[in-house]
Design brief:
By secondary structure, this protein is mostly helical. It is 75% helix and 0% strand. The chain contains 21 helices and no strands.
């Protein structure tokens, strides 16, 4: 029996999510990870949840899988995989529209199997270098990179943090998840190119006549042995995912195999998004406390319309919430509702699809967007909020409609 009252728990929950939406607390230098940690500590302090219950509330499989994927991408980055891939693009696709198409394809495909946030960390500086070398306007390519990382990550459980969480909570197999949502990602990437190319058609056409020298830059530094090892381990990992092996365990073993090398561990550790892991841990505690004290009094079992029409209503609510509090916290808010859905798998898939595509609506919609913006700013390129909306709004609307239609059509015909 919990000792905390409903008003107290509701207040802590509301303040935590309000601060998460702001991304900070005025007057303090705290980030979203710290906010989630404070919220979890407050729930423990007021008696809403005990320490053993808090420990059980944390989905360790999600944390382990996310950590393993981060180590894998960090290893590939150190081996020079991403630099080599972009260099091959320059050699074959230097035209403005061809370069945009390949940038979107590369970002989307890599984000389908590797966590999109860390893919953006690796690719953003390389895309900026390509634009500088080829004398191309960087904004269309940066927006294409960010939006494609979100769209492509719809395809699989390991595409982004919220899909990792949904995969763990829903227990949908990797193959089943990909079979239902990979087509949405593929269609979405085509639409992604069409929207960016249309919005920036004048800037891209205008860059055709610029003099391009592609042979003056030094070849990217790669470590052949590390590169081969990283690629082999990554391919085997994805193969085991599709074969139905325990996803968190496979990711952890892959990380362990990669760590058994002469690479300095601190180089890999620096690439781990520790704040994201802390935020996940804190949010699991905050949402579980709110669920056991407050949500159980709502009578969710009686919400018949939402339970019977999961795709449209879940997608609509997710689109709104994901842009209010970010998609990872939004997904956790849906957890109690998913448990009473009449079509659980369909509801989870709709949530994964919509919460991910919702990240493209605004510049603040996903961590991947913010990574691209911050890396570009450090390199002297400013990507403004309103500038991003030119692509973000139409792309989110059209891809979400495609995703909703696909899930409804394929479910009704199965």
């Amino acid at each position: 029996m919990q000792s905390a009252s409903i008003p107290v728990v509701s207040t802590i929950f509301g303040l935590t999510y309000f601060a998460l939406a702001l991304g900070k607390i005025p007057g303090l230098r705290i980030d979203r990870a710290g906010i989630a940690l404070v919220g979890a500590a407050s729930m423990l302090a007021c008696g809403a949840i005990t320490m053993p219950d808090a420990a059980r509330a944390v989905d360790y499989e999600t944390i382990v899988l996310l950590f393993g994927m981060m180590v894998m991408v960090a290893f590939l980055r150190l081996a020079g995989f991403f630099a080599l891939a972009t260099e091959q693009i320059v050699a074959r696709f230097s035209g403005p529209f061809a370069l945009l198409a390949v940038t979107i394809a590369l970002s989307g495909v890599l984000s389908a199997f590797l966590v999109n946030d860390v893919v953006c960390v690796a690719l953003t500086p390389l895309v900026l270098q390509l634009c500088q070398r080829l004398k191309r306007p960087p904004i269309p390519y940066l927006i294409g990179l960010a939006t494609a990382s979100n769209v492509g990550s719809v395809a699989t459980i390991t595409g982004n943090p919220q899909n990792i969480m949904i995969g763990s909570l829903s227990q949908i197999s990797y193959l089943r998840f990909a079979a239902r949502l990979a087509p949405v990602a593929a269609i979405g990437l085509i639409l992604n190119f069409a929207v960016v190319a249309f919005v920036y058609r004048k800037a891209l056409r205008g860059s055709r006549d610029r003099t391009v020298e592609i042979d003056e830059a030094p070849r990217p530094r790669t470590h052949r042995r590390l590169l081969i090892k990283g690629i082999v381990v990554t391919i085997m990992t994805v193969a085991f995912f599709f074969a139905g092996k325990p996803i968190p365990l496979v990711a952890l073993i892959a990380a362990a195999v990669l760590m058994l090398d002469r690479v300095r561990p601190e180089k890999l550790y620096r690439a781990i998004d520790w704040p994201l892991l802390v935020m996940f841990t804190g949010l699991f505690v905050v949402v579980h406390a709110f669920e056991v004290v407050v949500v159980q009094t709502w009578g969710i079992e009686g919400w018949h319309d939402l339970r019977q029409s999961p795709v449209v209503l879940v997608s609509g609510l997710s689109l709104i919430l994901s842009n209010l509090v970010s998609n990872v916290p939004a997904v956790l808010l849906f957890k109690p509702l998913m448990e009473v859905m009449s079509q659980k798998e369909l509801a989870w898939l709709a949530l994964a699809m919509s919460s991910t595509l919702a990240g493209n609506l605004t510049l603040l919609g996903s961590v991947a967007n913010l990574i691209v913006v911050e890396n570009a700013r450090r390199a002297g390129t400013e990507l403004g909020f309103l500038e991003y909306l030119k692509v973000g709004v139409p792309l989110t609307i059209v891809t979400t409609l495609v995703g909703v239609a696909w899930l409804i059509f394929t479910h009704d015909s199965s």
